[in-house]
Design a protein that fits this description.
By secondary structure, this protein is of the alpha/beta class. It contains five helices and six strands; from the N terminus they run E-H-E-H-E-H-E-H-E-E-H.
Amino acid sequence: MTRTLILTRHAKSSWDHPGLPDHDRPLNKRGRASASAIGDWLRRKGYRPDEVLSSSSERTRETWLRMGLSARNIRFLPELYHASPDQIRQALSSATGQTVLLLGHNPGIAEFAERIAQSAPEHPRFLDYPTCATTVLQFDMADWSRIGWHDGQVIEFVTPRALLE
């Protein structure tokens, strides 16, 4: 059985309120446009999550909202806020959906993407994973509890800049 993972870093956040705790920062104008563009791209490509695992931060919540997608199961997890690759893999192992969208933060999400992929796509921005970068990976496994490093085949990688230019 094939499983699909949509791995997205949150969109560009605002620094307009310097006293605001990092966890509570919203998206800026560019971030809102980027999240919408990624959502449109996912719909056009037919990548529709049935489950979402997201950091509990304001910017990941807003990224999900601005993507304009729907899912039957959405979980905002505090443990995904600035999570390490191992913490991300642990959270993903509890997923039950066929297609899971995981929203997180750098540097963990970039490191996770690199470690979970069988091989990195030939894209100059994959390893630094800019804001709202999205990778679609497929896994040949029955359930997410069996996910291991280098198990995912990269199907697509996109950055919002490529969609908005």
